[in-house]
# Entry
Amino acid sequence: MMAPSYRIPNLLSGTAGPSYNSKLMGTAKTDVARRVRQALTRMANRQALGSEVSDQTTSDDLARAARGYLGDAQILIASNREPYQHVQTPSGIEVVRSPGGLASALDSVARATGATWIAQGAADADRLVCDEEGRVRVPPGNERYTLKRLWLEPETRALEYRRFCNGCLWPLCHIVYVRPHFVAPRWRAYQEVNEQFAEAILSSLGARPGLVLLQDYHLGLCASALRARRPDLSIVMFWHIPWPNREVFRTFPWRRELLEGLLACDLVGFHIQYHATNFLDTVAQELESHIDHERFAIRRRGRKTFVRTYPISPDAAEISLAASEPWAARGAEQVREQLRLGDAQVVLGVDRLDYTKGIPERIAAYEHLLENHPELRGRVAFIQIAVPSRVDLPEYQSLAVTVEELTARLNRRFGSADRPAIHLITRNLGFRDLIPYYVLADVAVVSALHDGMNLVAKEYVAAKVQLDGALVLSPFTGAARELDQAIQASPYDTEALAAAIGRALTLDPAERARRMRAMREVVAGQNIYDWARKILRDARRLHLVSGAPRPGASR
Ligand code: F6P
# Structure
């Protein structure tokens, strides 16, 4: 969910004059002093956090493991969403990190392994910073890997990404009572885009051996296209969203083609066992195949596909360290002042503005709480950060209107002009902007109706270094399997969710700290580098990577 944003100079501007240079030297000195101060503070924080941070798998550990496991094989990550977008602004080209858990999580992996990342170029200045093959080194200022952008026709992209991925596969897999639209030309656009991704991966790889890490439901057919041309490739797919049960999946007209696409992978990963089991059940129902329940693998037409779970987590150490820095506490105080929160307790929600996230349900529960507990009115403030998402789909537009309306109603009923009951912030916040909100919040509410994992829940826990926060968590998130010390409540049950928020607000500090400590251990033991290392380790252990082209498709 976190998206650091920073400015880079306008790459198209002319050469710098002398005054610019001397200014730059002055700036450089202060910059060095500032960096030294920052490094010292970080060291002190690292020491204060002790083994909580120092025992975690690091980016260097992952880099070493990747070299050991993969030998010469090149890593290629492919996803619909690019990790960085170059956008035009009045003061030049600005780089922003894309919203969404996938982009920030995989960015850490790409940095550590030096992988090549292939994704759609979609922002208005993306082309301006790339070479003729669509390549640009990222992140700006600290270049660690190559991002290769794929240029799609706007019409194809509209059908494939907006209409098919987000209007069909997304509601189908989340089962949240939003009807998926099954429209043949959109499916054909999806097929076409998957072919184009395969083409870009193959041209990037050349004749070298490679491990392709396909990310998410946008690329469900890519492995078949790759396999047809390079049977030797090692292909892993990580499906970041839920996999529905077989009854729901049966409604999907192109179910067999999608399953064939996934079975062209050597390994398919999910966040939790429930989704992996649903996947196996679906294959058993739809395709003639042999399901090996012992090894959790599927054999079909002489090929074997392993199915495994890898619960994803953010870079917890980075978040904990940031949250312990003085700027984070200062930022929290500034938010308190700007929003005129006084000494109110703070409840926080952070989500993409998506109907799967249960934002209206959360606001309704909070309203119910204030209705039944007048003593809380004016003493609690709710901050909802809702990042606009997929804004051209009607379902998302009407959700935005609903959330605005619910917010206005709640404020009419229980807020005053200088003390709104709820603050709705509808923009994307960067890493440094978001951390202070986590630090500030006494309670975070994650009320997703269905979610593969939900990284916000884990980010909040990672940021609570003082143990002074409570998490209310939907049992329909992957995160709920691991964070069993959260206060769990169904978003479909308004009274239960209201009671859970009330309980979180009044939790005894010792109990709150005990629960938070337990959750922090979970998050620290499963960070993003562990996630990637386990996938690479299995790729080797299951003999998926030979370091050299393999002779044939079947094993
Ligand atoms: O986790 C599912 C997912 O589609 C990710 O791929 C992405 O990080 C997030 O949701 C945001 O979606 P989009 O890329 O469509 O804005």
Remarks:
- The chain is about 45% helix and 15% strand.
- The radius of gyration is 24 Å.
